[in-house]
Each structure stands twice: as C-alpha cells, then as structure tokens.
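[job 0412] stage=complex_fold ligand=beta-D-fucofuranose status=START
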Amino acid sequence: MKYRKLAAVAAGIVSLTLFTACGEAGGGGGQTPGSGGGGTITLGFSQVGAESGWRTANTKSIQDSAKAAGIDLKFSDAQQKQENQIRAIRSFIQQKVKVIAFSPVVESGWDTVLKEAKTANIPVILTDRAIDSPDTSLYKTFLGSDFVKEGRKAGEWLTKEFASATGDVNIVELQGTTGSAPANDRKKGFAEAIASTSKFKVVASQTGEFTRAKGKEVMEAFLKSQSKIDVLYAHNDDMALGAIEAIEGAGKKPGTDIKIVSIDAVRDGMQALADGKINYIVECNPLLGPQLMDLVKKVAAGEQVPQRIETEETEFDQAKAKEVLPQRQY
Ligand code: GYE
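[job 0412] stage=complex_fold status=DONE, emitting structure tokens
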C-alpha cells in the first residue's frame, strides 16, 4: 500500500518534470515561454532600490517606457541588497520571463545565478551598473554610463578650480554603495585626475551609501574629525545634499567655505548648484528606459546587439544650472 502510494507520487513528479521540460522548450503547440497572449514580451526587471533621486527617475523611465512599448514589466525593488536581487532573478527564471534586465547593486558575485538564467535560455541585459565577471557570455549587453569618466571629470574640474592654490587642498570623499560599480569607478577616475598634483590630499573617504541621510551623518563625522576641509567630493547629488545640511549645521557655508563637486545632476542637485551651494555637477543620465526597451525587443527576437552601449552626458557649473533648471525633467 505504502509502496503504491510512493510510486504514484514518483509518477506524478516524472510527468510534472516532462511537462516543465516541454514548456521550457516552447514545444507542445502552446505559447512561447515569456510571451503572454498576442506575443507580448515579459520583462523581469530587478532594480537596486529607491536610494536616490537618480534611482527614482530611472525607475519611472523604465516603467513609463515599458508601458509605451507594450512590454509586460515585472518590477522588483531589491532595497540595495544583493540577496534580494538574486531571489528576484531566480523568481523571474521560474516564471519563464522572456528577458531579464537588472541593475546590479554590487559588481561581484553574479556568476551562479546568471548561469542559471543562461541554462534556462533567458537572455540577460545589464543596465546602469556593470558586473566584474570575466564571463561575458552571461549577459547580452550593458547599457549605462562610463563611471570612471565621470569621476575623472570631477577631478579635472577640481584641478582647474584650484589651479592657483599654493597650500594643501584637503578633500573629503563620500563614496557610493560599497562594492558598487559607480562607487568603485568614480573613486578611481577622480583619484587618477588629481594624482599628478601633490597639493590634493584626500584626508577622509567613507561610504554614504548614495543616500541623503547617510551623506549627512558621515559629513557630520568628517566635520568633527577634520580640522580643515576645503572640498567635498560626493559620488552623487543626494549625499552632497545631505552633507550640505551637515555643513550648514556646523555654521559653515557650503559652496564657499567648502567647495562641493558631485555627480548625477538631478533636479534637487541642480537647484543647490544654481543656489551656489554646490560648485559643479557631472551629469549621469538616468533616463535609460527607451533604449532599454529597444534592446529588450531585439534580444527577445534573437537579434545581435552591441556588447556595451554608453549614454551621452555633460557637466554643469552654476551658470549652466540656472539656465537649464526650468526644463529639467527630473
Ligand atoms: O549615480 C546614484 C544612484 O548607479 C548611476 O546609483 C547609478 C547611481 C547614481 O544611487 O545616485
């Protein structure tokens, strides 16, 4: 009796497996996996979180353009945690979405889950942030910015701004999320640009996790521990905005007593730049949605796409910020 029951369960598992295998192969005359009725493409997207103004604009761009492109978007917010992103990707694989796209919170540790996607024949697109895996067969393409270049631009501005300074120029740095591509690369590019000028000294450098709250908290600590701060380099506007509160709280004038350079150029950052509280912003474009949906359609159709697609970006000083603020979309 017991044996027969077991056998029945086993048979059930076998037929279930066969059924699944059939579905994976797209056979059996049913719908293609990942496409709902009428050939709609299902896109599983794992977002980093909602840590900054940049991220909010990026999420909106992705949601709006998926809608406009008629793509069925399954959106998941990882709250800046890699384990949440891995869980979301595994769930997308289980749901047999047609394409997976994600913005990796950190650079390393993706090979296992991306191999699972590859085995399931689901193409992956990296957007905004890259990964450090040498196995480039794990994803079809990368769409985003050159973060090293952004950091370099911030450093180049500084060397011009302080060209005639004779003494040491003490810099504090607010880094982005530890281990993330933009934090690693923006640090690197900036360091490269200031390396040949010995007067530039990075006297403190710590993560502010790309958030206003943490930017404020870490800047408060810097102001207590450092006797002389000439410059703040923040890896994004939100941390710079938090730091501005800390600087004002300490009775100093941001943009004058402490010069500030940051990256992103979101509306609040641009407003602070126009108000003279930030001195220079290097742009990082969050409006990746339309290009991403184009890529999704192409990889879903099995078309070849370039390995890397970089977004066009510019820089803003205070005068330029005043000029463009009225038309700024985000
Ligand atoms: O600069 C920052 C956000 O990955 C480019 O992440 C993005 C960065 C952006 O939190 O504001």
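The longest strand covers residues 200-207.
[job 0412] exit 0
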